[in-house]
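Below is a filled-in request sheet from our internal design queue. Each sheet records the structural input a requester submitted and the sequence that came back. We keep these sheets so that new team members can see what a complete request looks like end to end.

REQUESTER: design group, bay 2
PRIORITY: normal
MODE: inverse folding
CHAIN LENGTH: 68
BACKBONE (tokenized):
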């Protein structure tokens, strides 16, 4: 994972601060700056758990069969 600010880092910061979240993962698809993502957390345990969390989210999306 790239370290340091990315093209959507400022927006990710806005969401993290505004929501008072411990962590934020922002994924943008075809945004005004192209596609990209930003992850912010000060908690190394949350960062370490992120791959498992993303696998769980992917499974939930697959299990829903693409239905919104």
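RETURNED SEQUENCE:
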């Amino acid at each position: 994972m790239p370290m340091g600010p990315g093209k959507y880092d400022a927006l990710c910061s806005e969401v993290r601060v505004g929501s008072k979240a411990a962590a934020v993962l922002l994924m943008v698809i075809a945004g005004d700056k192209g596609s990209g993502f930003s992850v912010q957390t000060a908690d190394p345990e949350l960062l370490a758990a992120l791959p498992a969390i993303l696998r769980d989210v992917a499974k939930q999306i697959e299990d829903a069969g693409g239905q919104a």
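SHEET NOTES:
- Helices lie at 9-19, 44-63.
- Residues 9-63 form one domain.
FILED BY: M.R.
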